Amino acid sequence: MTPLPDWQSLSLAQQVAQMVIVRASGHLFDHQIQYPLWEPPAARLKGWLHDLGVGGVILLGGSAAEVGLRTQQLQSWAKLPLLVAADVEEGVGQRFAGAVWFPPPMAIGAIAAQDLDRALTYASQMGAATAQEALAIGINWVLVPVVDVNNNPANPVINVRAWGETPEMVSQLTAAFIRGAQQYPVLTAAKHFPGHGDTAVDSHLELPLINHDKTRLETVELPPFRSAIAAGVDAVMTAHLQLPIWDPEAPATLSRPILTHLLRHQLGFAGLIVTDALVMGAITRQYGANEAAVRAVAAGADVLMMPADPEGAIEAICAAIESGQIPITQIQASLERIWQAKQKAQPLSDGDTSHAWEQLPPPPIQLEQLAQPQTIATVEAILRDSLRLHRPHPSRLEISAPARNLILVDDALNCTCLNRQAPAITIPSQLGYHLQVVDSYTPAHPDSLPNEPAPTLLQLFIRGNPFRSSASLIQLAEDWLQSLLHTDQLQALVIYGSPYVMDHILTRFQFAPDIPYAFSYGQMPTAQAVALEALLGDLQTESTGGREFTD
């Protein structure tokens, strides 16, 4: 295999730039940019890639096919091949339409509680499918798996993104996912070190505090990271949280005792240490953009994810090196690790020795690798095996008019899991239900709405929501449930998202035994179809003259 270009031929600023990952829109054109505070227009982004020589991008937005074109465009702008990353914790389809959207990892964790071998198979299949679809559209670094142990039901930011609530289960499913992903030349990342599962604060907004002692942290939080490292994970992403027992001053992302002494030396991790996004509130509220970047590198980070000011961060780190604050040998060690990661992510074709590595074009888009039937079947199987269903006989479900399909979501205008063809809308519509959508911006209380009483199918889309607490949405759901139960209109209930919300509602309200309900970890259209066909199967048979609905 032809070796990578010698990083020592780069200037100091170019070397430091290779440690920086910038945010980029997955869309092709500037007028499509959805997050202008974080996603630069094309001219600035091209300057960062070509002139500064930043080492990679993290993408969000766009269809899978569009992202395939986008990754080739971005690679063509860069002098050296890029690391192209994406947060695809629920498969590539979670972020990029057209690819396959998996249920959140906790769905597989729920299956593991009943059938560990089946869950391990699912986790491995999920890892393989995620890597395969990412590679097909030019993404070579999947920022997964989440290996936090979500043992705090009030956790607003991890929640169903975790495999489960025990270190043993999380460790086993983590290793299975990584083994599956390793079938493809795509990098993985275990996050969020040293463990974000027991927090009740969203680090996108503020800095969480974990006050556990070393024994607790070493027996609960650290084992999944040990498992990930043993399985060969390529990177470990830091957590923006405070752990006074290990560092009473700095958050983990900026802590040398945590990143270098604990992760690098004690746990023996030899891969990339990458920060969580440095634009998150837990960091920006206390540290300046350039100060945070310098502190993260000094702490032992190899890769800086989304510094608020890439140019300023590079200049500040160079100044810290020249002043002796950061040893040049540490930068050299980081560059060696980055080079090794890039070589794994974009290897030469078998037998190809005619070109230097850096001169090869990016691999072609392979859209035929997306949404393969076996991957879709795996998603449906996970959803069915993790579905919680209560279908009493007799039940209140019957075709009657007028009937209402009441859907509650956080933000109806930005809900990616709902459109006109979403099963949560079309299946009840076929049965004669009239649609009503309510979100957090709906001004009226349920009791004040001028709707005629009607048998109501209530569908709640509620899960942990980074950047915005779901507490108000839960309260809104409780208000609607209270009103529907008080007026005896609740016919059936479906909850998509958080099992903690489902458990809370079942405890909070005393449902009559003839009220059926279903819970799905997934919120995407496939999850809606699986849940509603399981719940409404008898009604569907009646409405189609005895013909069962099939997938």
From TrEMBL:
Signal peptide: none annotated. Residues 403-536 form the Bacterial Glycosyl hydrolase family 3 C-terminal domain. GO terms for molecular function: beta-N-acetylhexosaminidase activity. Keywords: Glycosidase, Hydrolase. Residues 13-339 form the Glycoside hydrolase family 3 N-terminal domain. GO terms for biological process: carbohydrate metabolic process; peptidoglycan turnover. It catalyses: Hydrolysis of terminal non-reducing N-acetyl-D-hexosamine residues in N-acetyl-beta-D-hexosaminides. The keyword RNA-binding does not apply. Its EC number is 3.2.1.52. Belongs to the glycosyl hydrolase 3 family. This is beta-N-acetylhexosaminidase. The lineage of its organism: Bacteria, Bacillati, Cyanobacteriota, Cyanophyceae, Leptolyngbyales.
